[in-house]
């Protein structure tokens, strides 16, 4: 777990190119609600989004079309 909880709105800075952020602006307003933090991503993934307090807010393996996000995309 993380030493800090993240709860509330945050801004994800999109980095690189990913299908999950295709045609979206470089900064996305999102909802965070978690006490855990991703500190390392798998070797076959790349970081595609981050916030000021969440270095891996979004990751992608475009070849396999696998994606992971730390925020709540349904909000």
Task: Name some characteristics of this structure.
ligase, five-stranded antiparallel beta sheet, 75 residues, 5 strands, nucleotide-binding, GMP synthase (Glutamine-hydrolyzing), mainly beta
Could you describe the 3D structure shown?
The protein is built from no helices and five strands. The protein has one domain (6-69). It starts with 5 loop residues before the first strand and ends in a 6-residue tail after the last strand. The mean pLDDT is 92. The protein is an all-beta fold and 75 residues long. The chain is globular. Strands 2-1-3-4-5 form a five-stranded antiparallel beta sheet, with no helix packed on it.
Write a short abstract of this structure.
The chain is mainly β. Helix content is 0%, strand content 40%. A five-stranded antiparallel beta sheet has the order 2-1-3-4-5, with no helix packed on it.
């Amino acid at each position: 777990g993380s030493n800090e909880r993240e709860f509330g709105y945050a801004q994800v800075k999109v980095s690189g190119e990913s299908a999950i952020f295709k045609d979206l602006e470089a900064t996305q307003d999102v909802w965070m609600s978690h006490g855990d933090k991703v500190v390392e991503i798998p070797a076959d993934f790349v970081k595609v989004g981050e916030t000021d307090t969440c270095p891996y807010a979004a990751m992608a393996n475009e070849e396999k079309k696998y994606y992971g996000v730390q925020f709540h995309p349904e909000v």
